[in-house]
Amino acid sequence: MALIPLASHFDGDFVIKLLPVDSENTMDEVAAAAATNVIGVHVFDQPGRTLRVRKQGADAPYGRSSTVAESGLEPTECIEIYFE
């Protein structure tokens, strides 16, 4: 378990935020953590849709149950969170 600061960009938000996550967090947990600072503040909620996480510029998202450690993300790398 290690604290990893990631840069996060939530689709529709105009700000990139620093998001501290644990190396054992799943991508669903990472998306939920990012959403607490954005949904209802800068981005409307979209009930019934799933939040996904991908590395900035990647086409495919990470598996929802994959962990930050498994993703190979390094500190301050940028992730994108979006509704699928």
UniProtKB/TrEMBL annotation:
Transmembrane segments: none
Domain of life of the native organism: Bacteria
InterPro entries: TmoB-like_sf, Toluene_mOase_B
Keyword Oxidoreductase: yes
A single GO molecular function term of this UniProt record: monooxygenase activity
Keywords carried by this UniProt record: Monooxygenase, Oxidoreductase
Record's keyword annotation contains Lyase: no
Name the UniProt record assigns to this protein: Toluene monooxygenase
Species in which this protein is naturally found: Pseudonocardia broussonetiae
